[in-house]
Design goal:
This protein is mostly helical. The protein has a domain at 36-116: Arc Repressor Mutant, subunit A, CATH 1.10.10. 52% of the residues lie in helices and 8% in strands. Helix 5 packs across helix 7 (86-98). It is elongated and about 65 Å long.
Length: 121
C-alpha cells in the first residue's frame, strides 16, 4: 500500500495534461503575440463598438502588421478559435467599414478581402 501512495505523488494533475494536449502549438504560439492599437484613429473610432468588433479590429491590426500591409483574406477558422462567429465577423466588418477603418471586398461564397485603413507604422 505504501508503494501506491508514493506513486501518487508523481502523478501529473489532469489540468496540466489537458492544457498541453488539447491546445495546438499554433494557438499556444499565437497567444504570445500582441497588437498595437493606434490611439488617434482606431481607438477613438471604436468607442461604443461591440466586443466582437473590438476583437475583430485588434485581429485585423495584428494581421496587417504581420502581413506587411497587404490585404487580408479573412477566413472563419482562427476567428472561431477566438469565439467570433461568421455572423459576428460579418457585422463587425460592416461596422468597421461604416466607421472608416476598413475597406472590404465582399465576394459571394468566398471569404472577404479586408484592407485596414488609417494604419501607419
Amino acid at each position: 500500500m505504501s508503494t501506491a501512495r508514493n506513486m501518487d505523488s508523481f502523478a501529473v494533475p489532469p489540468e496540466m495534461l489537458r492544457e498541453r494536449r488539447l491546445t495546438p502549438k499554433k494557438i499556444r504560439k499565437r497567444r504570445e503575440q500582441f497588437a498595437i492599437v493606434p490611439m488617434g484613429t482606431w481607438y477613438e473610432r471604436l468607442q461604443g463598438a461591440s466586443g466582437a468588433t473590438w476583437q475583430l479590429a485588434v485581429y485585423l491590426i495584428h494581421l496587417h502588421w504581420k502581413g506587411d500591409g497587404k490585404p487580408i483574406k479573412l477566413t472563419n477558422g482562427m476567428l472561431g478559435e477566438d469565439g467570433i462567429s461568421r455572423w459576428s465577423k460579418y457585422h463587425g466588418l460592416r461596422e468597421l467599414e461604416h466607421r472608416g477603418l476598413a475597406s472590404v471586398e465582399w465576394r459571394p461564397k468566398k471569404s472577404p478581402i479586408v484592407t485596414p485603413l488609417l494604419l501607419s507604422y
